[in-house]
Amino acid sequence: MPATLIDGNAVSTSIKARLTKRVSELNEKGISPCLATILVGNDPASAIYIQNKQKAAKQVGLVTQDHRLKDDLSQEELTLLIDSLNNDSQVHGILVQLPLPEHINEFNIINKILPSKDVDGLTAINSGLLLHREASLKPCTPSGIMKLLDYYNIRIMSQNVVIINRSILVGKPLALLMLERDATVTICHSKTVNLNHLLLGADMIITAVGDRNKFVLNSEMVKEKAIVIDVGTNRQSGKLVGDVDFESVKEKASWITPVPGGVGPMTIAMLLSNTVTAALNPSSRQ
Ligand SMILES: NC(=O)c1ccc[n+]([C@@H]2O[C@H](COP(=O)([O-])OP(=O)(O)OC[C@H]3O[C@@H](n4cnc5c(N)ncnc54)[C@H](OP(=O)(O)O)[C@@H]3O)[C@@H](O)[C@H]2O)c1
Q: Domain residues for 149?
């Protein structure tokens, strides 16, 4: 029997409906949650991500600021903008779209954002809090994946989970969230030896490579009834596809996310949710 589809569009729609209600309750109390996004340069994929985030934020009633900056912007100019947003009591969440141009130090910029306004959950403070199970603003993609699994009551405890990605955005925080829920986690990457052997032992595979020339998950790499979560985004003849050979893997897996319509919409829903959380935190409203 083919896998059951994990529908990120449907789950994110229900989260956004709840957030819309919450935002309107906050508006009545005089709080207008505001998300400021910053895009540096003209990368078309990043521009689409920002456009989608802005649109979804407006849909749930958030106030938004959309800062678009030239790619020759200096580190100092970007820092000044972040400082001014940090000091603006009307702004509750700040998101800097990654990647930044090469001449800008990404770590320094991310860590200029006040942790209480860090709605991407990427600052060193929020990463550290995540390690201690104390984070209130968690990275959006990993927390979106956890929400999806919970929505469908998919078992996490004691599962062998293989994550193919070790970035600060996806793999590392996701591994922590999975550990919190008592999974046994293996993190794989480009230097992993015998990846196929590890994959065949996995109850759940979460792949986020994003380059089909380097890696495609096919049905021979997946054990019967495995759960397959596809985070990767690739363009193939102008079409958005994931890391997974969906047609073959869905015949073997028990659950599977599509691309598009799986993890992507959940990432955005979690960003909106983090912005509302930040608006409720007095230190983001100084
Ligand atoms: N849907 C969403 O909401 C969402 C959100 C975030 C990211 N994404 C997508 O997820 C993908 C990854 O994003 P990222 O920012 O984490 O990118 P990244 O930092 O480039 O991560 C890619 C990961 O894949 C690993 N890798 C590369 N080739 C491999 C191979 N042959 N075998 C095994 N592992 C391999 C890399 O290993 P090394 O560490 O050794 O280089 C790295 O850990 C991208 O497609 C991105 O667009 C989607």
A: 140-264
